[in-house]
Amino acid sequence: MVQRQLRRRGIEDERVLAAMAAVPREHFVPDEIRPSAYNDSALPIGHEQTISQPWVVAAICQALRLEGSENVLEIGTGSGYSAAVLAKLAGRVISIERVPELGETARRKLEELGVSNVEVIVEDGSRGYPQEAPYNGIAVHAATPEAPHSLLAELATDGRLVVPIATGSADLLVAFIRENGELRQETIGPCRFVPLIGAEGFNPPEQGQ
Q1: Which domain holds residue 50?
Q2: CATH code at position 68
Q3: How far apart are CA 105 and CA 152, in angstroms?
Q4: What is the distance of C-alpha 165 from the center of its chain?
Q5: pLDDT tens-place string over residues 145-160
Q6: 55 domain-assigned
Q7: Catalytic member of 41, 52, 150, 169
Q8: Does residue 52 carry a catalytic annotation?
Q9: I need a surface site. Which of 11, 109, 147, 181 has the fewest CB within 10 A?
């Protein structure tokens, strides 16, 4: 995975590559699809959610430019895989998951691997988690109509927010970077994510629809 999928597609941060190599991806997928755990694709994990393609996880982590002591917010815990990777790159990770069952499973999977610097919280992640702000890095694992204003407000003065922005044909992975009081953005590349459901994402469907 590291050599064929990540290095060949522009992942050069050695800390990110080492973290991706160290975290057993098969630990975070349902038993019936474990043989496909290292495929170059997203995989279903239930509740209409997915574990992201390995390159996408690595690209988000690389764009955050973490050095090891940062306070990081993750939106969309999902399987817990990306949180486990971030745990090796940052000092502390707050991971927000909307689906209670996924949040509980992710907690258990992380505990089984001895990951102690990740806290999984179940609530609407589109508004971030201001109780622990500011964050040096914010990683969003669901597509949004635009960069959620609350997440931008929770960025530290040198913070980076990496988020997929939904467009007409495909999602676009974008990094918002705060430097010297200014906010600029860099486009990382096209991607595909499930939609971010919440107050500053896409509204959930009405009951019965």
Answers
A1: 2-191
A2: 3.40.50.150
A3: 29
A4: 13
A5: 888 899 999 999 999 9
A6: yes
A7: 52
A8: yes
A9: 181
